[in-house]
Amino acid sequence: MSLGADNLSAARPARWTVLWRQPNFLLGVALTATLVATALVALVWTPYAVDAISVPDRLQGPSAAHWLGTDLLGRDVLSRLMVGARNSIVVGVVAVGIGLVFGVLLGAIAAARGGWIDEIIMRGSDVVFAFPAIISALLITALIGPGAVNAIIAIGIFNIPVFARVTRSAARQVWAFEYTRAGLAIGKGPFAVTRDHVLPNVASVLIVQATIQFAIAILAEAALAYLGLGTQPPAPSWGRMLFEAQTLMAIEPRLAIFPGVAIALAVLGLNLLGDGLRDALDPRLRDWRAV
Amino acid sequence: MLTFVIRRALILLATLIIASAAIFVVLEVLPGDPALLILGIEAQDDTLAALRTQMGLDRPPLERYLAWIAGMVVGQTGVSHTYAVSVGELIAARLEVTIPLALIAFAASSLIAVPLGMFAATRRNRPGDYGVMTFAQIGMAIPNFWFGILLILLFAVTLGWFPAAGFPGWQAGLGAGLWALILPATALALPEAAILARVTRSAVLETLGADYVRTARAKGLAERRVLWRHVLRNALIPMTTILGLQFAFLLAGSIVVENVFSLPGLGRLIFQAVSQRDVIVVRDVVMLLVALVVVVNFLVDIAYGIIDPRPRSAT
After folding, report:
1. Where would I find the H helices in chain B?
2. Model confidence pLDDT, tens digit, residues B196-207
3. Which of A87, B106, B147, B205 is the most buried (most CB within 10 A)?
């Protein structure tokens, strides 16, 4: 039960070979690659302009002209889904980035210093952890109004204690090894030891956690946008598209299907990717999601 | 054990105090004068001043914070300006919906997930296991509000078996009330069940390899008895932590799902209070939700300490 560097690197090639034969992992890679590719394509091209309103064409079913049909205002559903993918990725990257930067910093300090500093950081993260992302988002919205940026901040804040805890517990295991003590003994400071020895060894755990938090961020953003607390219309977002579809459910149920499928596929892809990476990089963590 | 409980209780208290201070400070810097919001921008200066005095807005922040905390401890809550009733009454009425909703969802997800997880663990790497784990992956990927919309589409719009939205109130009869909660509880339960099934599976897999399980089998106990008696009971230890976490997610999830189904619960209350800038309601409901999360985690820690003595000294 160790997380030594030699231990991991020795086992790595074998595990990676096995990984590429896992159908679940391959499906995860394929879905995530599709998500990223769609978002990149949407940067330069969508079949129709995303806000092109064309009332005569409204509520059409799938056709050669509109592959996934049109919404109430005659806007092309496929184009809006593509830009929605871009929106989800931006939210996920920034929200996970906020969590990584602050969480890893706090977790690494807590592990390196121990004592009362550790205690304060961990109790502080308990407090933040008591606010689910939706509740932080509601508070922030009460404060500065709804919007995509506020949703990202709320999800990012929720991610900080997650990464702080994961970093701290993995870093403490690394600190128990002799090479960290040796680093201190040859006159390196705790900062240098953390940078040179601790962080490289906890990176694999953080990559796995980041993948899972990315999936959770996409779900949270969709929920916030659905409630009207995230991305504001007319900017397309998967969650908001579902809200608009719900009011038209009796006439045009099709509109309530595609954005949901897009969310589910994106989340499924990231979760499968995270599971595969976890099995390859750190088998001890299997099935324990810090949700 | 006593020191462990006292220590956790002190941490609980500190967490509640810091969380309440954070909520208070966040809402304190909120732009906008609650008195002005109530009376409208055409209000006379003296009526405005009178209302501010009546609401206690002219007192220093620290005094108002302490008054708020003291009021909550003795159950004396402020008055909502949009509903003109005390927040305590408002919350009590809304809990009649939210608590049954969360309980039904919690019971449903546990009743589905625990047997499924055990089934998968006992058929590790066989079709039954793959089937359950596929269900779990899909369940975790489907957002609860979209699942709610799909349920409305199928069971309310198309089949007409259930109401599409709303709650008749318990005075309409227990059956009618429960009937209206079935679809929302199902939407809430699916992602929880998916996560719980995975956790159950891995916890059961871990205990299946234990010596006492081999002993139980060796002495000729029926496999069913070994599973329920020896395996599940020990697997429950790691599962308590997850059950505590799930409670927080049920509360957060109910905010979204109540809005999908227009249920008059706590989630809808706080959502409406935010849109109407009803600061007093937002403050008290957020505090209540956070306190529930913290207290449940405290109880889980204590339960964990009772079931498994090892972490008592470790934390």
Report:
1. 2-28, 34-39, 45-55, 61-73, 87-122, 127-141, 144-151, 174-208, 211-218, 223-225, 232-260, 266-275, 279-307, 311-314
2. 999 889 888 888
3. A87
- Our CA-based measurement puts residue B314 at a distance from the nearest CA of chain A, in whole angstroms, of 13
User: Do B163 and B118 share a domain, yes or no?
Assistant: yes
B117 shares a domain with B21: no
Task: Let me know if residue B212 belongs to a domain.
Answer: yes
Give the model confidence (pLDDT) of B107-156 as tens digits.
999 899 999 998 998 888 889 899 999 999 999 999 999 999 999 989 98
Instruction: Confirm if B241 and B315 have CB atoms less than 8 A apart.
Output: no
Complete DSSP assignment for B56-86: TTTS-HHHHHHHHHHHHHTT---B-TTT-SB
What superfamily in CATH does domain A63-281 come from?
Answer: MetI-like (1.10.3720.10)
Q: Residue A264 in contact with residue B142, Cβ under 8 Å?
A: yes
Of B176, B195, B185, B175, whose CA–CA distance to B151 is shortest? B185
Structural domain boundaries in chain A: 63-281
For B239, which residue in chain A has the nearest alpha carbon? Answer: A288
B169 lies in which domain range?
A: 94-276
The dihedral through the CA atoms of B286, B290, B293, B296 has a sign that is negative
What is the ipTM for the molecules in this complex? 0.84
Q: What is the CATH number of the domain that holds B103?
A: 1.10.3720.10
pTM over 0.80: yes
Q: Which residues of A touch B (CB under 8 A)?
A: 24, 123-124, 126-127, 130-135, 138-139, 141-143, 215, 219, 222-223, 226-227, 239, 242, 245-246, 249-250, 253, 256, 259-260, 263-265, 267-268, 271-272, 286-289, 291
Contact B143 A260 (CB under 8 A): yes
Is B103 found in the same domain as B35? no
Q: Is the pLDDT of residue A54 over 50?
A: yes
Looking at the DSSP assignment, which residues form a beta bridge with residue B86?
B79
H or E element: which one contains A105? helix A77-113
Separation of alpha carbons B44 and B46, rounded Å: 6
Contact A135 B198 (CB under 8 A): no
- Do residue B143 and residue A265 have CB atoms under 8 angstroms apart? no
Residues B184 and B265 in one domain: yes
Q: What CA–CA distance (Å, rounded) separates A109 from A105?
A: 6
Distance, CA of B264 to chain centre: 16
